[in-house]
Amino acid sequence: MFGFVQMEAPVCLINTLPDGRLFAQPDALQILSQLGKQVVVVSVVGLYRTGKSYLMNRLAGSDKGYTHNLKQLLDTSYDEPTRRETIGSRLITGDSKHDTKIFCLAVLLSSTLVLNTRGTIDNRAIEELQYVTELTEYIKIKSSDPDGDDSEFIKFFPGFVWAVRDFTLEQKISGTALTDDQYLEMALKLKPVVQWLILSQWWCDLCDVVMVALHRGISKAAREFNLPRECIRNYFPSRKCFTFPFPCAPERVRHLDSLDQSEHCPEFLQVTQSFCDFIFEKSEVKRLKDGQTVTGRVLAHLVKIYLDALSKGEVPFLENAVIAMAQIENEAAVKEALEVYQKGMGELKSSFPLELQEISSEHHSLSRMATKAFIKRSFKDTEGIHFKTLEESVNKLFEELMGQNEQASREKCEGILSHLSETMKERMRNGDYSKPGGYSVYSQDLEQIVREYKAYSIKGVMAEDTLEAFLKQKSVQSKAILQADKRLSDQEKKVIEEQECSVLLAQELVCLQKRRDRVEAEMEAQSRSQSERIVQLQEWMEDALKMRMEQDQRAENLRIQEHTALVQSGMSQQAKRLQEQIQALKSSAASSRAQDGAHMRRLLDEMDRNHTENIRALKRQHAHLTESIMRTPPPKNNAGGLFDLVMLGVKLVFGGPATVKKPC
């Protein structure tokens, strides 16, 4: 689990080079990259020395205000009680393009945007927000459609809070008191554009040229009046307003930065507390267009991607940024998931050799954990490309580990047999088996070796295969000793040779059945893993679809709310355009959901095909082993103790026509 980094002071995230280019501070990016949890990002924007720093400090839990160098554009501070990231930005006057870029960054990176101004929300204050009207020039959705409309901005734009400082007006209309929110909505009220129809009745005796000129003049003035208001209403349908009175007596304003909280006006502190409460309670986790939540790590990627585009003089395309970030995050998610699997299997590897059931069970558990780790970090892997990469990588690692487990088993078993054969080797060197009756001694020693070998525990999956190789190796030696034993007659030697063949045949059948058992266990394990992966994948896709639907519904509800307000205000033309946007949003949302569903079906179909092919291959292998067992004649139980040892605990099933093999 990723922890949060507590900071004693704000850290500059984005700074300005002497040539005006923006760049991200590496230490700040490092801090963000350590935040693996979802973040709430709050930006406070406004002119220099308008009180932004005070608000940022209060959000960060500090009683003291602080000031910063003008070049420090974005600050991050950590709020321990709420575990939220707050980011504050200030606009630098003098270069409108530069300021617009900063404003766009605040919009792109924030989940709540606080506009901090002084005085009142009058026409001049709104007209000065040229940044809002220029957002479509600096932010685009798709590179494939650079001239596309801005109707989908609402899906990823932040909530909007207007903080009006040093507010002195009496909020009343016709004697009725207004709330701060009502005051904001009054300031954002639109003017009807088609006023010339009424005026034309007054001036009907004038020529058409005068009427047209008057119409154009009034329409232009109304459009200029409405433009910034329409942008705010369209881009930020979720709006809130706070009007702050003067923080202290006028004569103490110059010492404001050094004042304690107790020296501020009670009314000012009350509004400040309400502002902070609203931010903490209502600010949502930063989300992208499809409802995907943003972590600190993802935010760091976004900062770098957006700044890279702006530094090249390019327009940030949201879709391109998400694709680039998804590639980075999903590759990291695969790596992180594989580390989970490798770490667990690495611990298991120290216990090799293990039986198949043990290693398969651990593989199954770790594979599930790896998939869970991938899903937790993955980002918009809608086509399942990286999910498939993880699956293939885990299967490859498992095959390698199975090979290592078999090798460990083989080496251990060979070591056991080598150790148990020391006495036999010594007697062989001494010529004990070359004497008359030497074969009887040799066979007894061999039986003792097998007996003690069988008694060893934890030999692993290659125990019987290694024993088979050992017995075949000793059979050459045994035949030589048998033929040299002068105490035995030719008939006795012939019977003994048949007994040895029965022992080797029995061991071969034991190995065949063990291999078949392993294939059966592998088929069962693969089927179980496939079922669980499908469940995990479906849950993952359903969660992503749920987030998208919630985001779409939220955007639609806000648009409907704005449409209702326009209808009630008599703004029929604007309401009609907004209704068209609502329909476009619905159509786009339905198309996106259908596309995601198609991606999921293709992924599930491909997984099913791959699983079917794997099972078919295992079934062919199983059928081949079964055929080998069925075609092998059952050994005759005439080999005495060694035969009984070989067959110990093994139940073989025979059937069908038996094909007699040539003598060994």
Structural overview:
With 664 residues, the protein is of the alpha/beta class. Among the domains are: 11-190 and 237-316, P-loop containing nucleotide triphosphate hydrolases (Rossmann fold); 332-404, no CATH class. It is 61% helix and 7% strand. It has a 4-stranded antiparallel β-sheet with strand order 2-1-4-5, with helices on both faces. Strand 1 and strand 2 form a beta hairpin. Helix 13 packs antiparallel against helix 14. The longest helix has 79 residues, at 490-568. The protein is elongated. Residues 65-93, 195-207, 209-216 and 649-664 have low confidence and may be disordered.
Annotate the secondary structure layout.
Blueprint: E1 11-16, E2 22-24, H1 26-33, E3 42-46, H2 52-59, E4 74-79, E5 84-89, H3 96-109, E6 112-118, H4 123-127, H5 130-133, H6 135-138, E7 159-165, E8 172-173, E9 176-177, H7 180-187, H8 196-202, H9 208-235, E10 239-243, H10 266-282, H11 296-311, H12 318-349, H13 356-377, H14 385-420, H15 422-430, H16 438-455, H17 463-484, H18 490-568, H19 572-631, H20 641-646
Parallel strand pairs: 3-6, 6-7, 7-10
Antiparallel strand pairs: 1-2, 1-4, 4-5, 8-9
Helix pairs in contact: 1-11, 8-9, 11-12, 12-13, 12-14, 13-14, 13-18, 14-16, 14-17, 16-17, 17-18, 18-19
